[in-house]
Design a protein that fits this description.
10 strands, two-stranded parallel ribbon, alpha/beta
Length: 247
């Protein structure tokens, strides 16, 4: 794996053997499905909150909680008894525009109630200090067409940073459906711009920092040095159009 700096492991608080069960929010999305598959293959039990159990393939080591991320009881049932939480919430149809931040607030409250401290959150490059690392045309799109969505994610990050949890906020580049390659770079002060990165690689990285307790209270970016192709731009345009329809 190419890496721009070493992960900030915290061996005093945990190691690979410390995380047995992982609560997952956003398990039915592209990255979420990849994470569930990888986590169970690595021997972890997964509890996932889903609006409809049929949206996620039934498999061993996975417990599905049917409910809504805005419902405190459903979120609490998902979090209770787990060792770590991975939040990959995104805008979905028939939900309020601020579903990401409001849902994250419910997750933080549930983790506090049930004494679960480890939280890993997936947001996006272009937020916080990483705004300097995205191309100009991405900044234009996020400031106009995706303004409401990015404002919701910015609020999400603010809530996470204000919490007393052992959080990590991961900001990936442009997500693709490419294969798992481990060919990516990550870091807090990494010299890299937002490039295409597969959801499979993002899921692998999320699981790694959960297992190894990496980047505690930090906001690493996760990207590649791959060039931007016409196919990638077409994928991103399609993704933007989908988000706008869902909004």
């Amino acid at each position: 794996m190419r890496c721009c700096r070493r992960l900030a492991f915290n061996t005093a608080n945990g190691d690979d053997s410390a995380v047995r069960e992982i609560a997952v929010f956003g398990a039915t999305g592209g990255t979420g499905r990849q994470l569930v598959t990888r986590a169970t293959a690595a021997g972890h039990d997964v509890t996932a909150l889903v609006r409809s159990p049929s949206d996620l393939e039934t498999r061993d080591r996975v417990t599905l909680i049917e409910g809504d991320v805005l419902d405190p009881d459903s979120v609490g049932e998902t979090v209770k008894g787990t060792d770590a939480v991975v939040c990959m919430l995104g805008r979905t149809p028939n939900n309020p525009d601020d579903i990401v931040s409001r849902g994250t607030e419910q997750i933080i409250d549930a983790m506090t109630r049930h004494d679960v401290r480890r939280l890993v959150v997936l947001t996006s490059m272009g937020l916080g200090t990483s705004v300097r690392q995205v191309p100009w045309y991405v900044r234009v799109v996020t400031a106009t067409l995706l303004h409401d969505l990015m404002a919701d994610k910015a609020r999400q990050e603010e809530l996470v940073m204000r919490s007393n949890l052992d959080w990590t906020i991961v900001r990936p580049g442009g997500l693709t459906d490419g294969p798992y390659t481990e060919e990516y770079v990550h870091g807090v002060n990494v010299d890299a711009t937002a490039g295409p990165i597969s959801r499979a690689n993002v899921a692998a990285f999320l699981l790694r920092i959960v297992r190894e307790n990496g980047y505690i209270r930090e906001t690493p970016v996760l990207t590649t040095r791959d060039g931007v192709t016409v196919e990638f731009l077409r994928e991103q345009a399609t993704s933007i159009a989908t988000r706008l329809r869902q909004g």
